[in-house]
Amino acid sequence: MHASFLPRLALRSAGFCKIFSRVLIRGALQLGFTSRDPLFLSVVENLRNPAMVGAPCRSSAALACCMAQFVDPDSEGYVVELGGGTGPVTAALLARGIAPERLIVIERSPVLSCHLQRRFPFVRVVCGNAERLLELLGNCGPVSAIVSSLPLRSLKAEPVQAIVDHCHSVVSPGGVLVQFSYAFWSSSPLEAPHCEKIFSRVVWRNFPPARVDVFIVGAKLAAEPHDLTTPEFRHGQVVRRAEAMP
Ligand SMILES: C[S@@+](CC[C@H](N)C(=O)[O-])C[C@H]1O[C@@H](n2cnc3c(N)ncnc32)[C@H](O)[C@@H]1O
């Protein structure tokens, strides 16, 4: 195969995606979709930048609910969502009882950030790159949970390492890190010696099915079982129950 074949193919595919997204936008607008439709926005953003979005569809309610269940509405500190997209996980976190003023959503796409801010006017939406998480959060105060939908498997190693380092240093001891991944077979980039994995389970009611991993930062083990009462969790494999370090 000629050496320049693959780059040329990639360029052609990118060009094709751009043309296709323009045609799709026109067609969809004529069919009555508005530029505020979550479905419309996610399809267009996917065509514009597939590696950044990293998912063929937005998360299902089952997946979003599975992630949100691990955030304690009564905990102190902020809840930071990474990669809000069109907002299914944000909606699940609010439905879980997280006060909107405690929620900070980081989203890199300006179009999706505007959509999120319109959809959730009382939530703080920050348009920016999670690689600069510390800077984006400023001196917001303690963070008790990070819920991430970032496509860590389709990003390059360096940005992923930066994001992981920021996540580990931002969350207070005893706080949770929640991440989903379509790559069931590989370990989560968020795994670290000081993080205790308390849950790892595939949610099948999502396209494609995704594995949710939950870690407690700076945790030690306790005997008490995790209280998981929703149908998603009854079949869930709770790895361990953990408590914060004293
Ligand atoms: C897999 S989508 C998930 C969207 C939504 N949370 C859901 O579950 O449907 C990943 C989202 O992360 C955003 N994203 C990707 N890389 C990012 C980064 N480095 N910083 C912030 N957001 C990013 C994308 O724009 C996209 O909206």
UniProtKB/TrEMBL annotation:
Keyword Translocase: no
Methyltransferase found in the keyword field: yes
Alphabetically ordered keywords of this record: Methyltransferase, Transferase
Positions of the Methyltransferase domain: 79-175
One function term, GO molecular function aspect: methyltransferase activity
Record GO biological process: methylation
Highest taxon listed in the record's lineage: Bacteria
A Pfam family annotated for this UniProt entry: Methyltransf_25
Name the record gives this protein: Methyltransferase
Organism: Paraburkholderia lacunae
Phylogenetic classification of the source organism: Bacteria, Pseudomonadati, Pseudomonadota, Betaproteobacteria, Burkholderiales
